[in-house]
Amino acid sequence: MTPDADLLVIGGGPVGLAVAIEGRLAGLSVIVVEPRSTPVDKACGEGLMPGAVAALGRLGVHPDGHVLSGIRYLRGPRVADHLFATSPGLGVRRTVLHAAIAQRAAELGVVVVPGRGGAVEQDADAVWCAGIRGRWLLACDGLHSTVRRQVDLNVDRRGAGRRFGVRRHFRVEPWTDFVEVHWGRSVEAYVTPVADDVVGVALLGPAHHDYDRTLDSFAALRRHLGGAETLGPARGAGPLHQQTRRRTAGRVRLVGDSSGYVDALTGEGVRVGLAQAHAAVATLDDDVARSNAAYEKAWTAATRDYRVLTAGLLAAASSPLRRGIVPLAAAAPGLYRAVVERLAR
C-alpha cells in the first residue's frame, strides 16, 4: 500500500509546521494533523533569541515583531544587562509567529487536515495515526503528547518539578528593548515587548498562584504597566518539566516539546525546537535503526546547552541560592554574558 505522505506530522504548532517546511524543502510530501484553526496561541514568553530568528529566516519565515537588544535580570535594585553580541532577537506574539510559519508552509504545499493524533500502529514500512498512513510519523503535539504515550516513550514525573507558566498581554508602549526577567521569591516574570504598543508578561512558578497578586509583588514592573488594558485572556501551560525515554520508536520521532522539556526559564524553546525540526528531517534514512541513531545523536547535540544550563539555573532557582542569581550576574558580567550568548546562538 502506498503511504498517503512521506511525513505524517501530528501537531501543527510552530515546531510541527517547521518540520513540515523542512520536509517540503527536502522534496518530501507532508500531511499535518492539527485540530485548531490558524493562528494557534500558546502561553510562552514570546522572545525569539537571535539563533531562532536566523533559523526562521533559513526556512523563509520573517514574522513582524519588536526588536530585542538583549536580556536583563532584575531583583529589587539589582540589575544585570547583556546586549546580544552579533544580531538582535525579536519579540513576536505567538499568534503572529504561527500565522507567518503557516503561510510559508502553505506556500510550499504542506497539507493540513483537521484532527487529533490517536492510536499509533506501525510496521517495517509505514506508520498509521489519525486515519492517515505515512512513511514516518513526527510527533509535534506538545508537552502532553498523545503520541509519546502511545509509543511508550513517556516518563511519568507526577508531583516532581511542577512549575507552570501563565501569560497575559498588556496594551502599553514598551519601556525597554530588553527581555526583562524579574526575579521574585518563587516566581519569575518574563516581560517581552512584542509590538510598538504591546508587552507580554509571563509568570513562571508553582501552581495555583494568583496572577494579579503575584504581579503586584513586582513593584517596578507594576509601575511600568500602570493601569494598562489587558488584551485577551490569560493563557497557561504546564507542568513544564517533561522527560522521555528516547526520542524514537520505530518510524515515530518526537520533536519539540513532545521530545522533552526542562523549563521555560532561559527562554530559548523555539530555537531548540527549530533545531530539532531540522535534525528530525535531515537524518531520515531508509535504514530505520541507523536513521534513528543519527536523530538521537543530533537531538542530544541540539539540546545539550539548553538542558544543562537550564537545569543548572533551575536547580539554583529552587534552592537558597535563588536570592544570589541576579547579584552574581551583575557582579560577574563575563559569566552572565557567556551563558546568554551560549543560549542565544
Describe this structure in words.
The protein is of the alpha+beta class and 345 residues long. It has a single domain, classed as FAD/NAD(P)-binding domain. The protein contains 10 helices and 20 strands. The chain has helices spanning 14-25, 50-58, 94-107, 146-150, 211-216, 219-225, 269-282, 288-317, 325-331, 333-344; strands at residues 5-10, 30-33, 47-48, 66-68, 70-75, 78-83, 89-91, 111-113, 121-122, 127-129, 132-139, 154-155, 163-171, 178-183, 188-195, 198-206, 229-237, 243-244, 248-249, 252-254. The strands form 4 sheets. Strands 1, 2, 8, 9, 10, 11, 19 and 20 form an 8-stranded mixed beta sheet that branches. A 7-stranded mixed beta sheet has the order 6-5-14-15-16-13-17. Strands 3-7-4 form a 3-stranded antiparallel beta sheet. Strand 14 and strand 15 form a beta hairpin. The N and C termini lie far apart (43 Å).
Beta fraction: 25-35%
Quaternary state of the chains? single chain
Low-pLDDT regions: none
What name is given to the CATH topology? FAD/NAD(P)-binding domain
Number of strands: 20
* General form: globular
Q: What is the CATH architecture term?
A: 3-Layer(bba) Sandwich
Helix-strand pattern: EHEEHEEEEHEEEEHEEEEEHHEEEEHHHH
Work out the helix count: 10
Distance between the ends: 43 Å
* Secondary-structure class: alpha+beta
User: Level of helix content?
Assistant: 25-40%
Average pLDDT for all residues:
89
How much is the radius of gyration in Å? Answer: 20 Å
By CATH, the superfamily comes out as: FAD/NAD(P)-binding domain
Return the domain count.
1
| CATH top level assignment | Alpha Beta
Biggest pleated sheet? 8 strands, mixed
